[in-house]
């Protein structure tokens, strides 16, 4: 198994942040396949692009914002299916650990949301960075019906879709019915990234938040290796800026990065982007040793 160099804890008990790969794409309908290989590809990209070797020592790079100091990270390896994911996430959140999941297809988020909600005893706010709303209701239990399948666990009034630009008509109907706010890349360009971050923080308030990042929220110019690419997306910098702001609030209970499709990547671009997102998010998460901003 490939292990993240960022992992500096020997077990779950001593960790604040637990990284777990989910090697499952069984609920994907994408023509592009291969997301089940993504977790280890992402780990390799992180180890190769974010560490220098000199004088027989590994020298880590520093984050753009935030810090790795005091962060206890444990790489828990991979699971092959989502069958045990609910129990794993439930246990982690209940013990004040931060689950950081790497997919795999986007359906894993359904189990993560159900478990997070059950653990905190209330519905969670969802920040869903995705080119697609994944709010299909005419078909269920696949990567395109995550919001429908998770509806009982979500507070739609404090949730938001960000980067959406490839919605089916029924998804927009469902989002409107539930009062779910959608911010497209054009909205972000018009409003400005700082205004958007303020809007996200205002909408989520003091609620408990789960963040899901489908890498296709990013423009394929930056991240071509995804299952369902869609032009006119976010830049990597825009995404990381927003993630930094929300994570620094201290209200996020868990998150995931999904839909990296290595076989369709170009020179490892998307894997490196995913690795940077992982590291910047870890650096932005306040821990019990570090108060939130």
What keywords describe this structure?
293 residues; alpha/beta; Arginase, Chain A; 9 helices; globular
Concise summary:
With 293 residues, the protein is an alpha/beta fold.
- What would you say the CATH architecture is? 3-Layer(aba) Sandwich
CATH topology: Arginase, Chain A
Note poorly predicted spans.
Answer: none
Oligomerization state: single chain
Q: How much strand content do the residues show?
A: 15-25%
Strand order of the largest sheet: 4-1-5-10-9-6-7-8
Rounded mean pLDDT is 96
Number of domains: 1
For the largest beta-sheet, the strand count, sense and barrel status come to: 8 strands, parallel
Shape, principal axes of CA atoms: globular
Class inferred from helices and paired strands: alpha/beta
Question: What does this protein look like?
Answer:
With 293 residues, the chain is α/β, with parallel strands linked by helices. It is 33% helix and 17% strand. It is built from nine helices and ten strands. It has helices at 38-49, 85-94, 108-120, 146-149, 169-178, 185-191, 193-204, 236-247, 269-284; strands spanning 17-22, 51-54, 57-60, 73-79, 98-103, 125-129, 160-162, 181-183, 209-214, 252-258. A hairpin with a 2-residue loop joins strand 2 and strand 3. Helix 1 (38-49) crosses helix 9, helix 2 (85-94) runs parallel beside helix 3 and helix 8 (236-247) packs parallel to helix 9. The longest helix has 16 residues, at 269-284. 53% of the residues are buried.
């Amino acid at each position: 198994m490939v292990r993240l160099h960022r992992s500096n804890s020997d077990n779950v008990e001593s960790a604040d942040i637990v990284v777990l790969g989910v090697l499952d794409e069984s609920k994907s309908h994408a023509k592009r396949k291969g997301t089940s290989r993504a977790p280890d590809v992402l780990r390799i990209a992180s180890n190769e692009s974010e560490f220098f070797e000199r004088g027989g020592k590994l020298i880590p790079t520093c984050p753009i914002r935030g810090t790795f100091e005091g962060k206890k990270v444990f790489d828990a390896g991979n699971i092959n299916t989502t069958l045990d994911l609910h129990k794993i996430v439930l246990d982690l959140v209940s013990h004040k650990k931060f689950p950081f999941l790497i997919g795999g297809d986007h359906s894993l988020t359904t189990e993560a949301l159900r478990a997070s909600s059950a653990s905190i005893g209330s519905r969670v706010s969802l920040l869903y960075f995705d080119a697609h709303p994944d709010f299909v209701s005419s078909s269920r239990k696949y990567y395109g019906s995550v919001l429908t399948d998770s509806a009982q666990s979500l507070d739609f009034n404090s949730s938001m879709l960000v980067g959406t630009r490839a919605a089916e008509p029924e998804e927009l109907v469902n989002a409107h019915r539930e009062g779910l706010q959608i911010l497209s890349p054009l909205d972000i360009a018009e409003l400005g990234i700082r205004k958007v971050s303020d809007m996200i923080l205002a909408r989520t308030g003091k609620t408990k938040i789960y963040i899901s990042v489908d890498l296709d929220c990013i423009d394929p110019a930056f991240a071509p290796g995804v299952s369902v690419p869609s032009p006119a997306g976010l830049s990597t910098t825009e995404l990381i800026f927003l993630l930094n702001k929300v994570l620094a609030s201290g209200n996020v209970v868990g998150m995931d990065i999904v839909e990296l499709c290595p076989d369709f990547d170009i020179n490892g671009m998307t894997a490196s982007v995913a690795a940077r997102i992982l590291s910047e998010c870890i650096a932005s998460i306040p821990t019990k040793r570090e108060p939130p901003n």
